[in-house]
Description:
- Helix content is 49%, strand content 9%.
- Residues 1-5, 29-128 and 165-215 have low confidence and may be disordered.
- Helix 18 (505-527) runs antiparallel to helix 20.
- The strands form 5 sheets. A 4-stranded mixed beta sheet has the order 4-3-5-6, with helices on both faces. The chain has a 4-stranded antiparallel beta sheet with strand order 7-8-10-9.
- The chain is an alpha+beta fold.
- It has 5 domains: 7-170, no CATH class; 235-329, Glutaredoxin (3-Layer(aba) Sandwich), CATH 3.40.30.10; 344-432, Winged helix-like DNA-binding domain superfamily/Winged helix DNA-binding domain (Arc Repressor Mutant, subunit A); 448-603, no CATH class; 619-691, no CATH class.
- It starts with 6 loop residues before the first helix and ends in a 9-residue tail after the last strand.
- The relative contact order is 0.07.
Amino acid sequence: xxxxxxxxxxxxxxxxxxxxxxxxxxxxxxxxxxxxxxxxxxxxxxxxxxxxxxxxxxxxxxxxxxxxxxxxxxxxxxxxxxxxxxxxxxxxxxxxxxxxxxxxxxxxxxxxxxxxxxxxxxxxxxxxxxxxxxxxxxxxxxxxxxxxxxxxxxxxxxxxxxxxxxxxxxxxxxxxxxxxxxxxxxxxxxxxxxxxxxxxxxxxxxxxxxxxxxxxxxxxxxxxxxxxxxxxxxxxxxxxxxxxxxxxxxxxxxxxxxxxxxxxxxxxxxxxxxxxxxxxxxxxxxxxxxxxxxxxxxxxxxxxxxxxxxxxxxxxxxxxxxxxxxxxxxxxxxxxxxxxxxxxxxxxxxxxxxxxxxxxxxxxxxxxxxxxxxxxxxxxxxxxxxxxxxxxxxxxxxxxxxxxxxxxxxxxxxxxxxxxxxxxxxxxxxxxxxxxxxxxxxxxxxxxxxxxxxxxxxxxxxxxxxxxxxxxxxxxxxxxxxxxxxxxxxxxxxxxxxxxxxxxxxxxxxxxxxxxxxxxxxxxxxxxxxxxxxxxxxxxxxxxxxxxxxxxxxxxxxxxxxxxxxxxxxxxxxxxxxxxxxxxxxxxxxxxxxxxxxxxxxxxxxxxxxxxxxxxxxxxxxxxxxxxxxxxxxxxxxxxxxxxxxxxxxxxxxxxxxxxxxxxxxxxxxxxxxxxxxxxxxxxxxxxxxxxxxxxxxxx
Length: 700
């Protein structure tokens, strides 16, 4: 016998029935959209991609609107349902399990995964007088709501992922773009006012890039178990450059998961007096647990064998360092970058800028932040009490000192209506150069030899303190918070107006190799690890330094200077044009061995090492031997197959005219027996060459 239903409830049930029929039509439309293959047609135009993007956004918006309507319909039906509450909960649990099971197969767009649209089930009171028909419609509405939510998310995620793949294909490739796996998540570079700034959360993203499946999550859990021990105390380690025992004690501390602060007395010479006072000698390494002198590596091993090392560690965990404990390096301590003589011309420039700089039109173009030559002469005559001829000479001196330049590089300086622009007002310098954060510095430029020497010592200290033995792995997390890196950031500001054109070959090689490798570390810390073609393009081409009044990117240094202004791989343009002033800095001949010395944060790249001008050729040869013998060049004499690094494919023309000449060039740095066998093989038979896949993963 059926129970009577009130007229009000019949009306609500009929309304839910009509809306459910409308929603079924919407579901059919979604199933038809899902059957479309959005990834077909790789030759589609950019306009077609944009139309697809707009259509998908409309579909996504419609799905969300339909989802809201379904939620309201389910609430109306639930109010009149006559079912047991326990049975209803079981239905919800079963439907949730189905949705979760299907969500595991959803495509994920690299780097910008659309978050799940959480749908909260409405809590309604059940009427005991409702019919079983209302219960059936309630179940249909809930299932339909979950179905629409799932299909809408799948459609949006699928389109975004496929659209990302198309855009990557349309980009102009840099070396190895085609080898990039598509399942990596991209890292968005933090940017402030058009410039990339450092964000510590970048490292969290870099770790997340390595988590791609459940097995990787297990590896991450294991890695988390190896994190340094959290402690209130402080460990201070005194070292110096080139100390072998210092390398061993670093390995010991890492094995014990003990975080420490390193003080290199060659980088911080004033700490020598402190070390001699508290320890009685200048011998290193010396390690302190808070104020307690532990000693060197032998003393640590004695404590470990006796079981007292754990007591010392527990002491560090619970006790904060007292005042008498050695302090970490202070900001700017023993930093020569903050010393020097004030440049009077720089003071004049600071007074000129607010008076004469503004936006102007010239030759049907708008030039921002520039000034007229006549205005500069007028200002100098008035401010410095000079005759006009004397003011012109001062202005030309400012131009020679690289304070400003002609907007079109037509002349040095003329007392005319030509437009000129100060160095830090140049749009490229202000937006892409990361070594001029506060404009032109007030100190007189130092000789490039002095800056190169200090850079070499600082880079050597960073390699020894923050890389693994051998230099294959880099501790970026520790570098970004170190005083050594802060000193490096201050040092590169001295490069604005230095003279680099007169450097000798050996000095130029050593300086720019060390600068390139530190610049790559700086780029990774600012932009994050580049996981895709677009990110690599930004790192190699858009991250720049201003050196000697000109801007240099990583690509310009490698292909313009080291490769004697050769075209980069997969490009048709040379880095430096015919009238480019940077062409005077380029080497006269290509240096092929630099490819085994330049490191830009990849696992397949060479190891980090520091280079000096006195032994640059021997050090480059050593870097080539280590890289090729360490897996960069493998030959199977039985099958007559050579597996070589992709560097030889990208820059093969630097090593020889053809593959045979490339192999002969590389054989000079292999093991002698293997080199002889390879040369014999090249004479008698045809050797098959296979280029190794390049691993763009971060070398952390």
